[in-house]
Amino acid sequence: MHTIPNTPEVEKELLDAIGVQRFEDLLVNIPKTFLEKCRIHLPEPLSELEVSRHLQNLANQNSNTENMVSFLGGGAYDHFIPAVVDFLIGRSEFYTAYTPYQAEVSQGTLQSIYEYQSLICHLMDMEVANASMYDGATALAEAAIMSCGITKKDKVLASPLINPGTMKVLKTYLSNRNIEIVLLPDKNGQTDFSTLPELIDDRVAAVLVQSPNFLGAIEELTGVSANIHEKNAMFVLSVDPISLGILKSPGGWDADIAVAEGQPLGIHQSFGGPYLGVFSAKKALVRNMPGRIVGQTVDVDGKRGYVLVLQTREQHIRREKATSNICSNQGLMALAATIYLSLMGKTGLKQAATLCLNNSHYLAEKISSLKGFRLPYGKNPFFKEFVIDTPVSPKEIIAAGLKENFFAGIDLGDYREDWKNHLLIAVTEKRTAQEIDFFVTFLSKFQA
Known about the structure:
The protein is an alpha/beta fold and about 450 residues long. It is built from twelve helices and 16 strands.
């Protein structure tokens, strides 16, 4: 909506009609101390050229992965994005982050979502996928709620090695629904599933697992699904979508619901969002899925068309029957992922995943040869992310790295006391041998 400025004369006429002398008289019920804190003290007006320069100078103060080498991970990764992704999603007919309410008037929008759903089903090896969620964290939380709704149970078991940010969202979503979260034990950087049979009681609706987990380790999931299903609970698996180029799919592990953070699929890190929540499930669960699902049909003339076949949201159904929140998808980000997956194909995704695997293992081997550095979970298989035990504080290494124009990783001590002096490092297909070797040389300065 365009701003409609009022002239002083019009403003006076409005205030007279209301019965006050000035705008501030409308705020008399608000405490002055609060008003002063909220008051915006704007500088003198600037010309368009001056404003443009000022904003550019502010933007230049940011550090980002476009002009710095990044070994950051923890849920957002510096993957290669083909230029055509940004070009296509920037077209005016696509450039909206939201699906139209009357989507049937836009067959192109519906087809793009249908193609996205189809690609996600192939990627995750699942039978149905929705039009997307906000992000990976909300997707996992919605999966937990969906599981409780299906099983009529009020407790979930969760791996303690789920991304801490995701865990906070999960607790927030479940806190007012009287759903209990019980954490499984972890051992040597992986989830300890040995206690699973005894922890799954009659109240457990689902077991939530992330693999690769927050520490980068690939979880050993053999037999996990069978133990869960034996107790009439559901298996919810969160994955790295790039890893599926070479790792076993959620469908291969017999997951009931599979979710992911879709940011690696052609979406910029963008200081934390918008991202993409990937949500898929077995076909038998389709009517319990949150969000929207697009289907393909034919019209009265026999021509192919696309429609919203399921949209059990507050706008379309009684609130107590709704299966999701009011806004439940990221249309533009889903389109970016669709274009990315279409461009990469099976071969390209496998190549990207293999490069991540090779680069990360090459770096891990090099770092572990430095005096004072070690892999605390050395025997754990990992994909593109791993933990290094450092001889000095990770914060010291990170701060020094910024001066050298790169991001050295994440200090895990900020999350758990027993992770003190642990540095989480991620290596994507974008990292060159020169960049990796430079990082090793940089770390050698901190040898014990």
